[in-house]
């Protein structure tokens, strides 16, 4: 996202470029990896994300830097896909991967960013566009209707994208409604806050995050 840069950010970028650290694995650069974990915990605490999102919680949570928000949406989809594939194979061992993947279906608002649709194409799964309300928000009742219809058609709902700050109109999907619906149907909830997520550093805007405890993954672009 184009934005002004602070002096510390410019210096940090110069240092990063000069060091030219290859940090794609812990063994390649332990210091880089540990710093990434610590820094993303700082960001999570600034946003007051639930402790489950933080590496310091002692659980399985923690952040990772992606190249773009589009990449983060794809990574979340692939994680949700792998999780659901494992669950369904345990329940139906006679089904092969191709059969299961053909049944998987994800959901996003009709106002979601184009990268969500692209993630579905790259992930090789169906993504269903759910109509938004008159304020361009995805609502819980619309999501539940779509999920129930697909279940009746023999499909397997596995992934739902809730956008907090659409690029079209900065609309905020009702996470407090969609999250519980998805949780009830064992659907992975990914929160795409790329456009407006930095605003949640300010306490007066955090009401837009209501229901964040129902999410499985969260991405935003720190500005």
TrEMBL record:
Family annotation (Pfam families): Pyridoxal_deC
Gene Ontology terms: biological process: amino acid metabolic process; carboxylic acid metabolic process; catecholamine biosynthetic process; serotonin biosynthetic process
Key word Lyase present: yes
GO MF, any single term: pyridoxal phosphate binding
Top-level EC class: lyase
EC number: 4.1.1.28
Gene Ontology CC entries for this record: cytoplasm
Keyword DNA-binding: no
Cofactor: pyridoxal 5'-phosphate
InterPro entries (alphabetical): Aromatic_deC, PyrdxlP-dep_de-COase, PyrdxlP-dep_Trfase, PyrdxlP-dep_Trfase_major
Keywords: Catecholamine biosynthesis, Decarboxylase, Lyase, Pyridoxal phosphate
Assembly description: Homodimer.
Annotated family: Belongs to the group II decarboxylase family.
Name used for this protein in its record: Aromatic-L-amino-acid decarboxylase
Source species of the chain: Drosophila neohypocausta
